[in-house]
């Protein structure tokens, strides 16, 4: 008899967390490893947010169960923050507070997907989306993009992938892993296509504040208001406020879908940690100056990483427009001897292993995101570590 269910046996480990864990394990063994794997700001959570959590610990009501949908004051603040930052109006009752953004992702698919429903998924995409779709009984349908289009899916591509089983589209801008940002007119065009075809949109806006240069974030239901009744907006405090470990995200949607999602959460996790919710409330309602400071630092690092990657023979990268990732094409290092040992890598999985073993630098291969030949490098790290890691790769490639 099998010891685990077929469903869970088919779910792959998170590639990004696996790379980060391996890098940290090697560091613990005394290896001088530089890890580009985790999508996690290196800054501490701002002080006023931490102090709000400390104070919340002292309040006895926070030691007890609270509503499964989230603290009423936090749900109201999220609605106000969404209007403020995304120009999308919603009510507090349309908000479900979740245990991190990843929990919001799975809950969205659980709320919408019946067995066999297809979900359009532009690739490259974050490693969790296809696994969460499958867990909910859906079928992920890749819509491939590449650097020639700036990793942006077109309406024509989406229409070509649409079938009678298409239930939803996953839309992410700024993108993990590519760093691409959709122009407002393209966001609107895709939203109108979804509206006209009765397709739900699950828009993940976790990187909304991390946009650089002349690029601009827009929320799809804000530019296509009629889409609001068939759209779920996912977000959280992790990336914007350097709160990855606090585990507070949220889902916004039509009242009937949110009610079903609340019922689901009431039987799975109940309420999110009250202290973390108090911290999230302080984050979105308090001083926002740290957001600008971190964004400026990421913009500077992204420019540096883009330059240094393109200086490596065999590597090309488009400039990151948002999030905190570069997504270079590494295919020029494949199929030929490289590195001091003349290692021949047939794919970026083998290339990542070789560079980790020989140069002590960890990154996530593109196979994890549905685009072999590419790799994701996070620049959410100290400048000196980032530059040292990229120098090591350059020296490895030139050996």
Rg estimate, integer Å:
21 Å
Structural class: alpha/beta
Order of neighbouring strands in the sheet with most strands: 2-8-7-6-5-3-4
Q: Helix count, per DSSP? A: 14
User: Oligomer, anyone?
Assistant: single chain
> What is the CATH H-level superfamily of the largest domain?
Type I PLP-dependent aspartate aminotransferase-like (Major domain)
Quick rundown:
The protein has helices spanning 6-9, 15-28, 47-57, 72-86, 101-112, 128-135, 155-161, 184-196, 220-223, 255-268, 274-285, 289-310, 348-359, 383-398; strands at 34-35, 95-98, 118-123, 139-144, 166-172, 200-204, 231-236, 249-252, 325-326, 337-338, 343-344, 361-362, 364-365, 375-378. The chain has 399 residues and is of the alpha/beta class.
Describe what you observe in this structure.
This protein is α/β, with parallel strands linked by helices and 399 residues long. It has two domains: 6-44 and 290-398, Aspartate Aminotransferase, domain 1; 64-285, Type I PLP-dependent aspartate aminotransferase-like (Major domain) (Aspartate Aminotransferase, domain 2, 3-Layer(aba) Sandwich), CATH 3.40.640.10. The chain contains 14 helices and 14 strands. The protein has helices at residues 6-9, 15-28, 47-57, 72-86, 101-112, 128-135, 155-161, 184-196, 220-223, 255-268, 274-285, 289-310, 348-359, 383-398, and strands at residues 34-35, 95-98, 118-123, 139-144, 166-172, 200-204, 231-236, 249-252, 325-326, 337-338, 343-344, 361-362, 364-365, 375-378. The strands form four sheets. A seven-stranded mixed β-sheet has the order 2-8-7-6-5-3-4, with helices on both faces. Helix 5 (101-112) crosses helix 6. The protein is globular, with a radius of gyration of 21 Å. The model has no long low-confidence stretch (mean pLDDT 95).
């Amino acid at each position: 008899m099998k010891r685990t269910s077929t469903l869970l046996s088919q779910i792959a480990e998170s590639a990004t967390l696996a790379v980060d864990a391996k890098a940290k394990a090697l560091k613990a063994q005394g290896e001088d490893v530089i890890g580009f794997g985790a999508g996690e700001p290196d800054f501490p959570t701002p002080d006023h947010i931490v102090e709000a959590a400390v104070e919340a610990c002292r309040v006895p009501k926070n030691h007890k169960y609270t509503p499964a949908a989230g603290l009423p004051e936090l749900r109201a603040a999220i609605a106000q923050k969404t209007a403020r930052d995304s120009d999308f109006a919603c009510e507090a009752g349309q908000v479900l507070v979740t245990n991190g953004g990843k929990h919001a992702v799975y809950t969205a698919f659980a709320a919408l997907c019946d067995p066999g429903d297809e979900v359009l998924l532009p690739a490259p995409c974050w490693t969790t989306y296809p696994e969460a779709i499958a867990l909910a009984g859906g079928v992920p349908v890749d819509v491939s993009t590449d650097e020639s289009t700036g990793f942006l899916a077109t309406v024509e591509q989406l229409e070509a992938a649409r079938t009678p089983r298409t239930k939803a589209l996953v839309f992410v801008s700024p993108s993990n892993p590519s760093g691409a940002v959709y122009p407002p007119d393209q966001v609107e065009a895709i939203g109108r296509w979804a509206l006209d075809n009765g397709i739900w949109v699950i828009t993940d806006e976790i990187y909304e504040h991390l946009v650089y240069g002349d690029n601009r974030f827009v929320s799809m239901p804000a530019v296509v208001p009629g889409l609001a009744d068939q759209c779920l907006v996912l977000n959280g405090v992790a990336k914007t406020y350097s709160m990855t470990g606090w585990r507070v995200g949220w889902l916004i949607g039509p009242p009937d879908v949110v009610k079903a999602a609340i019922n689901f959460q009431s039987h799975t996790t109940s309420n999110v940690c009250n202290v973390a919710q108090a911290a999230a409330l302080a984050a979105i309602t308090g001083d926002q100056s740290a957001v600008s400071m971190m964004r400026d630092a990421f913009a500077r690092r992204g420019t540096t990483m883009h330059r240094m990657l393109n200086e490596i023979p065999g590597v090309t990268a488009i400039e990151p427009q948002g999030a905190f990732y570069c997504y270079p094409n590494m295919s020029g290092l494949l199929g030929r001897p490289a590195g001091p040992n003349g290692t021949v890598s047939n794919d970026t999985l083998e290339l990542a292993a070789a560079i980790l073993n020989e140069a002590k630098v960890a990154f996530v291969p593109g196979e994890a995101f549905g685009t072999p030949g590419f790799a994701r490098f996070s620049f959410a790290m100290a400048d000196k570590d980032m530059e040292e890691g990229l120098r090591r790769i350059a020296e490895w490639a030139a050996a």
